[in-house]
# Entry
Amino acid sequence: MILILLGPPGAGKGTQAHRIVESRGIPQLSTGDMLRAERDSGSPLGKKVKAIMDGGNLVSDEVIEKLLTARIKQPDCARGFILDGAVRTVGQAKMIDRVLKKQKRALDVVIELVVDEDELVNRLKRRVADTIASGKPVRPDDNEETFRKRQAVYRQETAPLIPFYQEQGKLRKVDGMASVAEVAAAIDAILDEFSAAKR
Ligand code: AMP
# Structure
């Protein structure tokens, strides 16, 4: 099962991806996590992407291609994987198709978490307040200004993936404003359908 979780920053993709990892035993590939690890390690790539990430912009498709092609070849991806915020431009979507085709594999389904942007900003504010209250460090890109910028980048660069995957018949929509449990149940129903079809 190869699936993409699509939706703006803060839509709950990470939360749902972690749950699918537990229930289906396939890994979550988050380019955001990979890039944060590079940035925090101070590697040459990390230094290159730091300002781009901290400003809420997208790193180049070439960087994402390098990260993902290496990761997808790992043995734990053999049974499938979840691309969590890892496909952000039509260029990246085409790249993933190419890479998978070379491995004689294909994307199964794209699940879009449909959300309300203003409510996401409220959620962000609550998350930042909770993080501060618990004494943990706040992510450099977790402030309202950068968050709104990331939403705008999503609308401009990533939202075109919705018609792209719709045309391929691979897009499924889930109400991302429902509770975590309800979103999880809706996603599970879609994944069960695909697992049954593959058997
Ligand atoms: P995320 O945690 O997925 O929201 O990612 C955090 C930041 O990493 C984004 O705001 C981008 O700067 C960068 N990033 C993560 N994934 C990608 C991607 N697939 N393409 C371009 N930039 C990305």
The chain has a mean pLDDT of 94. The CA atoms of residues 25 and 112 lie 21 Å apart. The radius of gyration is 17 Å. The chain has nine helices and five strands.
